[in-house]
Specification:
The protein has about 70 residues and is an all-alpha fold. The chain is built from 2 helices and no strands. Keywords: Membrane, Transmembrane, Transmembrane helix.
């Protein structure tokens, strides 16, 4: 599970980089730039959720150790 999460985080970071290159910073909310910005935000949300999942798994393991 840990390796799978790391792979997903790397893929999401790759999508962030790719979509950031597609953004036209002079008009970021028009045309394809808006779609690229949505992609960047979606990938950031995915990374955040995966990090939260990793932290919750660590907490769950520590709680099981104490029992």
């Amino acid at each position: 599970m840990k390796v799978f999460n790391i792979i997903l985080i790397v893929i999401a970071l790759g999508l962030i980089i790719y979509n950031a290159t597609l953004v036209d910073f002079s008009n970021p909310l028009e045309g394809d730039s808006a779609i690229a910005l949505i992609g960047v935000v979606a990938a950031l949300c995915a990374v955040l959720l995966l990090i939260i999942l990793n932290i919750s798994k660590k907490i769950q393991d520590k709680v099981k150790e104490k029992k």
